[in-house]
């Protein structure tokens, strides 16, 4: 069962578009300090006392939302191709490109909404004590970030 959970988390992570990963890495994540990724929970599962019921609940969430993400990613690929095709040629129809680009942006936003929904629903599975413990594991990361800012 643990292997299945790990595979599901890995599959979910691979499904998030590289574009949104790059944006998140470049920008400060305003919610990262308040939410917990499946990877963080897996890494610290013993330390926080994650029980089988919670693990199974998180697995179900990932399975449920994974299906939605796959459909959205296919749609995003199609919409991105449509933008690219609209840009080809010596003259470009600005309205056409902007409409197609807007569609692609809407789909990217929906992918982010699904990901945020997953993180919120995972947080709601955890007890307040488990959340506090996970926050303590994040603290070294925050102090490292502060030190790197001070040296710049």
What is the residue-averaged pLDDT?
A: 82
- What summary fits the major beta sheet? none
Strand proportion, as a percent range, falls in under 5%
What general form does the structure show? elongated
Q: What oligomeric arrangement do these chains adopt?
A: single chain
Low-confidence stretches: 3-26, 142-152
Over the alpha carbons, how many angstroms does the gyration radius reach?
19 Å
State the secondary-structure class: mainly alpha
Count of DSSP helices?
A: 7
Structure characterization notes:
There is one protein chain. With about 150 residues, this protein is mostly helical. The protein is about 80% helix and about 0% strand.
Features:
disordered N terminus, disordered C terminus, elongated, single chain, 152 residues
SSE blueprint and pairings:
Elements: H1 2-15, H2 18-26, H3 38-43, H4 45-48, H5 52-87, H6 94-125, H7 128-151
Q: Brief description of this entry?
A:
The protein has 152 residues and is mainly α.
């Amino acid at each position: 069962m643990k292997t299945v959970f790990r595979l599901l988390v890995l599959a979910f992570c691979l499904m998030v578009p590289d574009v949104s990963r790059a944006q998140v890495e470049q920008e400060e994540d305003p919610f990262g300090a308040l939410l917990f990724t499946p990877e963080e929970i897996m890494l610290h599962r013993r330390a926080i006392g994650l029980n089988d019921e919670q693990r199974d609940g998180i697995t179900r969430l990932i399975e449920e939302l994974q299906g939605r993400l796959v459909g959205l990613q296919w749609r995003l690929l199609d919409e991105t191709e449509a933008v690219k095709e609209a840009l080809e040629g010596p003259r470009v129809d600005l309205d056409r490109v902007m409409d197609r680009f807007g569609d692609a942006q809407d789909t990217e936003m929906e992918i982010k909404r699904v990901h945020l929904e997953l993180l919120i629903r995972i947080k709601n599975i955890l007890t307040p004590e488990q959340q506090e413990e996970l926050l303590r594991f994040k603290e070294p990361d925050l102090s490292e970030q502060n030190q790197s800012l001070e040296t710049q």
